[in-house]
Design brief:
rod-shaped; two-stranded antiparallel ribbon; Four Helix Bundle (Hemerythrin (Met), subunit A); binds zinc ion; 6 helices; 230 residues; 4 strands; mainly alpha
Length: 230
């Protein structure tokens, strides 16, 4: 507040006064007589001269006035008559929200306890599928090995029968030299065929044994050994 000076007309005491005292009277603090201050101080009001400057922009209007807004909201809430309708309209959203919350909770539970929920997958060893394929192939091939042994055995049986029949035919007979040599050649051929067929049978059995051992190693359960001729 600007201060002005006024001399007491009675004692000359310099009295300081403010704008509020303009045009009013007060007792002089020195002589006690009534002093009237001028309605307009000498030189005019200094403040009015300062107001001639451009006023700053009214920032306050842009500011968020929280108090009045809250008051308006409270008034609206208190006086709104359709809260019941609004409540009913909100029910579906509340149900959906609760469902989402439940689903999220379930998912978190699942993540926290993975072994509890996830289905246990069978532990498949590497190469198991290859082994199963091999076993299937072996199962398809084993009958061929069995058949090969049977065929070889049949050849041996035939060779033995032929040789025995030959011996039975000429046993105890008196043959001339030419016939004897001829029969001996047939004996020899028959014996050779017995030996050859026997070697062939042995080789075929060996092939069967190799295949059958591998088949059993793959987990094959069919008893192909029992299907072989004695
Ligand atoms: Zn005075």
């Amino acid at each position: 507040m600007d201060q002005y000076k006024h001399s007491c007309p009675h004692c000359g005491h310099q009295i300081e006064y403010t704008q509020d005292y303009c045009g009013k009277s007060t007792p002089c603090p020195l002589c006690g007589k009534s002093v009237m201050f001028p309605a307009i101080p000498p030189g005019g009001f200094r403040k009015k001269l300062q107001i001639a400057k451009p006023a700053p922009p009214p920032k306050q209007k842009l500011q968020f006035k929280l108090g009045p807004m809250l008051s308006a909201i409270f008034t609206f809430v208190r006086e709104f008559e359709h809260w019941r309708v609004v409540g009913f309209c909100l029910i579906p959203f509340i149900v959906i929200a609760l469902g989402l919350v439940a689903a999220r909770a379930a998912k978190r539970h699942q993540e926290a306890n993975p072994t509890e929920v996830r289905p246990t997958q069978p532990q498949v060893e590497a190469g198991t599928w290859d082994k199963m394929e091999e076993l299937t192939r072996a199962d398809q091939q084993m009958p061929a090995y069995v058949q090969a042994v049977r065929t070889a055995k049949a050849r041996v049986d035939l060779a033995v029968r032929t040789r025995d029949a030959l011996h039975n035919t000429y046993r105890g007979q008196n043959l001339d030299t030419a016939s004897f040599q001829l029969v001996m050649a047939r004996y020899e051929a028959a014996d050779k065929e017995v030996n050859n067929s026997q070697q062939s049978l042995n080789a075929t059995r060996q092939l069967f044994n190799q295949a059958y051992t591998k088949y059993q190693g793959l987990g094959g359960k069919v008893d192909y050994q029992s299907q072989l001729p004695p």
